UniProtKB/TrEMBL annotation:
Any single Pfam family the record assigns to this protein: FAD_binding_2
Organism: Croceibacter atlanticus (strain ATCC BAA-628 / JCM 21780 / CIP 108009 / IAM 15332 / KCTC 12090 / HTCC2559)
InterPro entries in alphabetical order: FAD-dep_OxRdtase_2_FAD-bd (IPR003953), FAD/NAD-bd_sf (IPR036188), Fum_R/Succ_DH_flav-like_C_sf (IPR037099), Fum_Rdtase/Succ_DH_flav-like_C (IPR015939), SdhA/FrdA/AprA (IPR030664), Succ_DH/Fum_Rdt_flav_su (IPR011280), Succ_DH/fumarate_Rdtase_cat_sf (IPR027477)
Class of the enzyme per the UniProt entry, highest EC level: oxidoreductase
Catalytic reaction(s) noted: a quinone + succinate = fumarate + a quinol
Recorded topology in the membrane: Peripheral membrane protein
Gene3D superfamilies in the record: FAD/NAD(P)-binding domain (3.50.50.60), Fumarate reductase/succinate dehydrogenase flavoprotein-like, C-terminal domain (1.20.58.100), Succinate dehydrogenase/fumarate reductase flavoprotein, catalytic domain (3.90.700.10)
Protein name according to UniProt: succinate dehydrogenase
Keywords (A to Z) from UniProt: Cell membrane, Electron transport, FAD, Flavoprotein, Membrane, Oxidoreductase, Transport
Domain Fumarate reductase/succinate dehydrogenase flavoprotein-like C-terminal: 532-666
Amino acid sequence: MSILDSKLPQGELAKKWTNHKNSINLVNPANKRNIDVIIIGTGLAGGSAAATLAELGYNVKTFCYQDSPRRAHSIAAQGGINAAKNYQGDGDSTYRLFYDTVKGGDYRSREENVYRLAEVSANIIDQCVAQGVPFAREYGGLLDNRSFGGVLVSRTFYAKGQTGQQLLLGAYAAMNRQINRGKIKSYTRHEMLDVVKIDGKARGIIARDLKTGKIERHSAHAVVIASGGYGNVFFLSTNAMGSNVTAAWKAHKRGAFFANPCYTQIHPTCIPVSGDHQSKLTLMSESLRNDGRIWVPKHIEDVKKIREGKLKPTDLKQEDRDYYLERRYPSFGNLVPRDVASRAAKERCDAGYGVNKTGQAVYLDFASAIQRYGKEAAATQKISNPSEAKIKELGKEVIENKYGNLFQMYEKIVDENPYETPMKIYPAVHYTMGGIWVDYNLQTTVPGLFATGEANFSDHGANRLGASALMQGLADGYFVLPYTIGNYLADDIRTGPIPTDTKEFDEAEKLQVDRLNKLANNNGTKSVDHFHKKLGLIMWNKCGMSRNAKDLESAISEIKELREEFYRDVKVPGDANEMNQELEKAGRVADFLELGELFAKDALHRNESCGGHFREEYQTEEGEAMRDDENFMYVAAWEYKGEPSAAVLHKENLEYENIEVKTRSYK
């Protein structure tokens, strides 16, 4: 074990990033034309980095498995993006955003990274407005804000429930400009299979053309992993079905340490599981918790009647409803952080108060908001003594303007009108705070290999506040990596093009070809999905919203056995040298089967509860998370040693000089 060097700048926190930028090495414009950069993933982190680096003059190659860069999963983000602009005049500031993020992450994130994130957040909004992103605006034309969980201010900029889509289109437009100039070569329907190292440095990748099955070699002076998170290790999650860990995991197997894999976010507002037929779950934006009130019936008899269809939720009087978040956390109410809200919903459902047939759902109710907004609208329109019907009509119009597409989506999936009856929601796997370990420059433990956005571990600690994923992705891509990667590439101005006809490329390609052929020629009896679903059940039941030592130990052995069975009995139809989506899935599930074991190992070693990592043995009498700052205030970074069971732990100790570390309270 070693203590990791995160290369943090010295000096006053508020000046560290500025001083760091002023002191790092630069590459002059003429030399940038001779330097190549590969970027894996074209979501907000990868797309913004590609556009910015190409604009600076670097030669960029982008790779995505989708049929277009604009189909990256960032497009699915709904609720908004945080920035400390204080447009509402409610006391927000760079320090407040920094503080909320560190507190929300349960004091398990790096101070310097989080402050930098808060510092550049305001620039992101200006950049995106300049690109034409249609953020919501107030009546006077100024950009509007709403609040998200874990904060007491309104700092979230949004475009209805389509914020991720609009931001990604802005980054994609910037990318297209560079593609048109020839500065970006876009490789769609390509999957990275391996990182190639030469003399210890990342110098290229092995990729597979998913349309033809052809294996390709691509070289560069640096490689950037921006491939998103690994939530699909649970099979059912809010991620797109194609989202995977392969790029990050292959980087890990080439020497990049993997940090805090057990830190996974369970999102509290998702459409509940409806049966075994589902292949993914649907997120309902956290922004809905601004106006929606979460509750379950107070009395178990009412729960039974609702499940049997004998009672409607709208029939229950206010005194017969348990608004449990408002009851338990009066200061924050329905806007507590995601980990707190998720565990609270699980606790109520485990106690028998779940309101759907499976017993795994709570209500998200907009009746109060419709009434409130309806009365405001009536007053604004000078309607005296409005009828209840008129108030309801006006209130619905306001809600539709704020959340219309989300309500429409819910009704299409569930076949219930959320304007008339409360939504049913339940927590589901969403975002992963863990990822590839990076230093302050976003460089991994492999020189020349960088990681940005959700693919790295850097900014969210043990729990991510809502609307901070888009903020981190764009901060990394637009405003951090373009500076820090130059510091590394300044040593490569005389290197010249990296050849691909070397033994390192030969060996990496052979390794991946042999692996694909082994999977394609494995005459087993069970489908890839069979194994993925079994892995997902183990992960959800034993590494999900709550964990304990006994379950984690059994999860480790069960995943290892499942991995052995997978290689023995998986059936992949088709050939390796053609379009073969089952083969694609097989490679990704093989990586999940290794990651899953490391995930459980990481959760087992961390004998505390913090953020999204909730160990049943470590909780207060009130059921809240109990941290152990004396023994676990560190980043756990794992080094690959051939098998997940052999992974070696390295620590990055966390020090807080600008924030008082204390038990989180949202009461």
